[in-house]
Design brief:
Elements (H helix, E strand, L loop, with lengths): L3 E6 L5 H21 L3 E7 L15 E3 L20 H13 L5 E6 L2 E3 L1 H10 L6 E2 L2 E2 L3 H7 L23 E2 L3 E5 H9 L10 H7 L5 E2 L4 E5 L4 H10 L4 E5 L3 H11 L18 E4 L11 H12 L3 E3 L8 E5 L10 H10 L4 E5 L17 E4 L3 E2 L4 E2 L8 E2 L6 H4 L11 E5 L15 H15 L3 E3 L6 H4 L5 H8 L1 E6 L9 H8 L3 E5 L16 E3 L3 H16 L1 H18 L2 H34 L20
Helix pairs in contact: 1-8, 9-18
Length: about 625
Amino acid sequence: MKKIAILVIAATSRPIYVHYIKNYWTALIRHLKATRPHIDVFLLFENSTDLTSFEDLRPHIIQDPCSDLGTLCSPQFHNPNIPGILSKTIHAFELLQDRYDVFFRTNLSSMIRVPYFDRFVQDTPDIMYSGGVVYRDELRDNLVFHDHVGPGKSIPSVDALNEYPGNTFVSGAGFFLSAAEVKFLLGRKHEIRYDIVDDVSIGLMFANHQSLPGFRLTAFYQESIAEIKSRIRRSNAPHVRLENFSLQKAKDLWEHIQNGELWQVEAPLDTGKTHYRIHFPLFDHAELRANEVRMTHEGLSAHPQVSLVDDPESADYVVLCHNHITDHCPIHAQFRPLKDRYKTKTIMLDYEDSPDLVYDRDDFRWVLYFKRSCVDRRANRPFDYGALRIIPTTYGVLDDMLAPPDGHDERRSIAISCLFEDAVCVYDWFRNGRGRLLPFAKSLAERYGYPMQIGLVSPCGPEGRSAIDERYKRCLFDSKIILHANPDPWEGDARTWEAISSGALVFLDRMCQPIPHPLVDGVHVIFYDLSEAGFEELERKIIYYLEHDEERTRIGMQGKAFVLERHRSINRINELVWELDARDADVAELKAILDLERATRSRGRSRPVLTTWQTPEIKGPE
């Protein structure tokens, strides 16, 4: 059995930190000592911290002996996190390197769900540098964005980092290292940079990393306690992150979970509902990082009625995204035979742009077929698919997008953002909507002088869709108003939900929305028309909402709450599971009718022959 050390960045500078230590972490330490002695928790404090209030935790406290952090990096680069967090992390590694097989570094605003966490570690043959939130190939861009690079900065130029192999970092809220990786890190201790954020510095040292989809669940301060408990109970995520909780919110949550129901024991599945074994194949290609694949995997991993299995033969259903079989991806040669072999138990999630494209239209034996962009934009009505049962769907927002960026506050320094490249003015697909909105935004900047972000802040295309870019996310959260438009030929994109999830007031061209839980004008967003009169009205409304902070904030936060409740990755899977549940209920009802028919006939009674059977009306997914 692997021995595990959980290292917790700790401090007493805020009352909420003391609350976390005295309640959850103290309870966890006692629980592990009694039930799982192979797991130890260590609270990592800086040198000057007064620990007299925590005498009973002394065996689980590691205090950094470094009293002069100026010896690690120049004081001009110091802040409350640099270099103290990295210093006490490295000191803990030095003390514990020979005692444990696996290390998990986290912070006080985390919750470890013990049975899930322990099983994950014990069942994973080779733990490596990994975590639930991974910033792939963004490390150097992150340093530039946070102004660590340039003359007079801690890093004179990006080239100064050429000796470091890593360009990916795992969020410091929770990352694993193996014992061998800890020894490797300590063996190169003289190369560690203490003048930058700790998780970025550690990422520099490792060329290899691993993302752990579904490992982390983030609970947000805007959610009610009931919602948080429900999401935790429905998930098998080993690590829960409590994002930006107030002290009162943390106390309220502890009142409900201190009995250990959600972190000491596994949450029992609702045995009244069907559990589905689903095969969702992953693959080694850039398309794996596409929005729809990441969103689907995150939702499937978190859903309480779903177990992901590696073998399609043993699965109840196979789920494919269009990415698996589309012509432009070379991986289609791998997955089209899988689709053909298991067609009658395959669910297609088609996020293709073209409304008229339907995969295997002439061999439509799919169990379920979900499709984004089911709208004829020219007529502004749902697309007619004839006898084919096409279920409209849309994108959702990934959990990583919901947490505010580090250091974010609600002042929102950008009045208006319009994040399109100039090419939208000439591309046929964008000319009427985005191609008119972008010049409109530029004219606002010229005429009113508002602080605005016009143009891209991060890569577009496949690169931009492969991960949540921190610059893009920060821009959304720093904006008061976001101007957006759908592509001309189709309706719905990931940017819509990402923008609304930031809490900004989003202006959006009017949509048809044949989807569950559509956006409501004036409640979640503000719709505008793509006409001369529409743009004149849009300008008047922008000025009005910039001058009326309370109304703007109210609609923006209503939109954010709506996305949290109805349009996340797990909501898309809710819709899939509801369709399966309804399908099973329909089959059961039909079987009951046929059984009754046979029983009646066997008794020699005359009954009308069942010739048609209609699906009963069933309430849709909540």
